[in-house]
Amino acid sequence: MSTFEILPDEILLELCRYLHPYDILYSFTNLNQRLTQTITDFSQQISLTSILSYDRYLNLFQTILPTIWSNIHQLTIDNSEVSCLSTLFLRVFQQQYLPSQLKKLSLLNVNTYEIYRFITEFLPHTSIEELIIDCTDEDAVKQQELYGYKIAQTLFFHHPTLKSIEIHGSMIFDLNHLSFLSLSNADESNANCIQTQQFLLQRLTVPLRSLSSLHLLLIYQPYLQYLNVIIGHAETMYDYAVTPFPPLINLTEFELHSEDFDIKFEHLVDLLVFFPNLKSLALNLSTECREFFNGHHLQKLAHSLERFQFSISRFVAPTTDEQSLMTFTTPFWLETKHWYTQAYWNCEDTENDGDYFHIYTLPYAFSDFDVFKCSQENCFFKDQFPVYPQVKRLELSESSDVNIIPFLKRCSKMQTICLNDIYDDEENYGTDEEEDITDLNEGDDLGNLSNHSILTPLTNLYHVRDLILYSLPEHDLTFLERLVSATPNLVRLGVYFDDLLEILSHSSPNLTEILRRQIGQLKIHLDYQWTMSDIRRDLSKIFRLFANLKALTITPYSSQKTFSRVIREIVSYIQKSSTKLICVNFEEIPSEDMELLKKQKSIEFLLNTLGHVELNSTSLTIWL
Q1: 3-state secondary structure of 321
Q2: Neighbouring C-beta atoms of residue 333, cutoff 10 Å
Q3: Number of helices (H) and strands (E), helices first, in the chain?
Q4: Which one-letter DSSP state was computed for residue 605?
Q5: Model's pTM, two decimal places?
């Protein structure tokens, strides 16, 4: 008699590819030694990201995970699909340490307070080596005031086993703040403790307010091999002069990401002096300093490097020489180093508001690529399009489809596309430029200008799962339809409400069918107040179009009144409707509204109606 267990391991693992990780752990954990050994990778690498029912998550947390707790090496908690998943985890495991064998922890889309709890309550009891944090917070500045100092103290100064720290998102450390300065002006006992600590940190990605206080961090991290500094938009004026610190002789890789237009070329030159053995430099900058757009100046930084990659942009039109990239076509760049540079730009004839210039090295080195008002391009490769395999997120803004389609084709591995007013360009239809960048089907009628958007499909984008719509052209969904037709694995859609109403009212039968079939997660950003009558009218249309939704996320309008009533009305409507929803998330709730929700009977109503509600400082998740 044949049994399931006679199948070889290779067949069992192939079957597991078609199962959700929860089902694999639920079905095979501790059945027998062989099956337990076969699914080792699934039990050692736990990723809490999916949309599951409350009962399944509770069973996972209370029954399944405790049986494999000591075997877990990697743990990921991601709130991107279930907003309060980390809150539920903290509630269930509040009396328990993290797994003893845990080496890597990833906290994604988690707020500052919960990051603080993970780091101060769980982290000190582990021998974790790698930590990844992606922070999302509605009130990041206030939360930083409350918890930033303690987070920095634990991560940068008091954890002996961490080898790699990577921090992104809204958590930005202001090392000039008095609480951070106290780390370097500690009393004698604390200072001696810091000096004698054997730090193992080798890789660090850290968001800072400015470069001026970087020395306060680096003087305690002498063994860094990789450093990535992220500077956001400066909210106050800082002195960018670099305070001297002991050279980091082990540092071989340095990345600087900056959106501060005031950063100057000499600031970077002064900083690099302290990295004497640097081999790799990457710059991702938005700056008004013209020296960064001159190959002769950049050559001074790069002459001793083995690798130099950059993406540099500004909101000022390029000169003719800059357009030609002549300073990047010297023997140093092309023959000695074999480094190639590409550029695109836009020049307005009357107003300067639309001027833009972006230069970057090939192959493109960063995970995000922005195309803003692209009207002209200088490609180093004339006969073929270069591929940008590192790009995971592509943002396209205020350009015609003709000018952005090449970037869609180049970013072959991107997972997220953001659209901001991409319009269909009928003027270029039928030109050599259009034919070069689109894939025409045999038999297409090239003379039908009015329908050309549908008749020229894009290359299939198999890796794209997220589409974010910042703004759609008024009464024009043609390019949106072409795009979703080319993304067969699209499952998540983020949209502002005005554009959602446009989609609900003017979608073609083809676009309607694609959205109904593919979209399982919808995130709505309300850009005006939602009244009770609006909710009843609009939700019926939403669920009619997005019939396969599993998760609905709503971000309220900043001036929304009676938000607790809005939540009650939405939940009441969903309860009466026939949907496939598993959960509803409300995100970026203003703190005062959240406090009112806790004090009023709204939460009591939800608990009595549904039974499964989780909330944190800015988010609310309701499992249906």
Answers
A1: helix
A2: 21
A3: 26, 23
A4: H
A5: 0.87
∠ CA 288-204-617, nearest 5°, is: 85
Reported as a single tens digit per residue, the pLDDT across 110-161 is 999 999 999 988 888 888 999 999 998 866 677 777 888 888 888 887 778 8
Q: Is residue 245 a contact partner of residue 215, using CB atoms and an 8 Å limit?
A: yes
Helix (H, G, I), strand (E, B) or coil at 248: coil
Which helix or strand (DSSP H or E) is residue 494 part of?
A: strand 492-496
What phi-psi label fits residue 340: left (phi over 0), alpha (psi between -120 and 50 degrees) or beta? beta
Burial (CB < 10 A; 0-12, 13-18, 19+), residue 178, is exposed
Task: Give dist(CA 39, CA 67) in Å, integer.
Answer: 14
Name the token pair of 473. 């052209």
* Cα–Cα distance measured from residue 83 to residue 619, given in angstroms and rounded to the nearest whole number: 6
Residue with tokens 């083995």: 306
Q: Which one, of 351, 352, 334, lies nearest residue 288 by Cα?
A: 352
Write out the DSSP string of 172-232. -B-TTSHHHHHHHT--HHHHHHHHH------EEEEEES-GGGHHHHHTT-TT-SEEEEEE-
**What is the token pair recorded at 77?**
């908690």
| SS3 category, 34 | helix
- Read off the tokens for 524: 């709505």
Phi first, then psi, for residue 339 (nearest 5°) are -110, 130
Please name the residues in contact with 372: beta carbons below 8 A apart, sequence gap of 6 or more. 313, 346, 356, 358, 395, 397, 398, 399
- DSSP class of residue 241? P
CA distance 394 to 416: 6
Whole-number Å distance between alpha carbons of 259 and 233: 5
CB-count burial class (<10 Å; 0-12, 13-18, 19+) for 129: middle
In the structure encoding, which two tokens stand for residue 394, read together? Answer: 């592509």
